[in-house]
Design brief:
CATH class of the largest domain: Mainly Alpha
Strand order of the largest sheet: 1-2-3
Number of domains: 2
Shape: globular
CATH topology of the largest domain: Four Helix Bundle (Hemerythrin (Met), subunit A)
Number of strands: 3
CATH superfamily of the largest domain: Flagellar protein FliS
Distance between the termini: 35 Å
Radius of gyration: 22 Å
CATH architecture of the largest domain: Up-down Bundle
Structural class: mainly alpha
Length: 187
């Protein structure tokens, strides 16, 4: 291994380790785009095995992005998951049918995703503040489970009148005022 490749590997490792969550997402999308272009070019050159390898690497990245999306039930998360699920299916299908020209559609979607994440990285260059790991928002189903866990019947008069968003749960069925909201990029 040469000094230049060692330096490149060290640089890339440092880049990944110090990147914000939104920058990591952008890096993954850029990787998927790079492999999709490679697959397309290799297919055009009739290098089928190499094209397949590049396509599989693109598909692996798309699968990783899809698996990292935390479904919070919101329409936005369902829409984002739908985009990546479509891309995964499209990459699988176009390989099975040897229709690499369909990568144009995949690349169009990935390039739009890249533009979105580039804009987010410009608007939010720093990592968002994350809530403490032991805290999470209480939902009505959590409250119902906690009430069932105690042998006492639920009595709404025992609860202080606070908006639901002002409570968090630390795993011990105690309520604490939430220290603030934030955006999570755990996806």
């Amino acid at each position: 291994m040469s000094f230049a490749s060692d330096s490149t590997e060290n640089y890339l490792a440092t880049e990944v380790l110090t990147a914000t969550p939104q920058k990591l997402q952008l890096m993954m999308i850029n990787g998927a785009i790079r492999f999709a272009y490679q697959a397309q070019q290799l297919s055009d050159q009739q290098e089928k095995e190499e094209a397949w390898e590049s396509l599989m690497r693109c598909r692996e990245i798309v699968a990783q992005i899809l698996c990292s999306i935390k479904d919070d039930g919101s329409e936005l998360m369902q829409s984002v998951a739908g985009i990546y699920f479509f891309l995964f299916q499209e990459l699988t299908d176009l390989h099975a049918k040897d229709e690499y020209q369909r990568l144009d559609g995949v690349l169009k979607v990935l390039n739009e995703e890249r533009e979105t994440w580039e804009e987010l990285c410009r608007q939010m260059p720093e990592a968002p503040e994350r809530p403490r790991e032991e805290e999470r928002e209480i939902t009505s189903s959590d409250a119902e489970e906690m009430m069932q866990a105690t042998d006492e019947p639920a009595n709404p008069e025992n609860f202080e009148q606070r908006p639901a968003s002002s409570y968090s749960y630390d795993g011990h069925a105690d309520y604490y005022p939430n220290s603030g909201g934030g955006i999570s990029f755990d996806a």
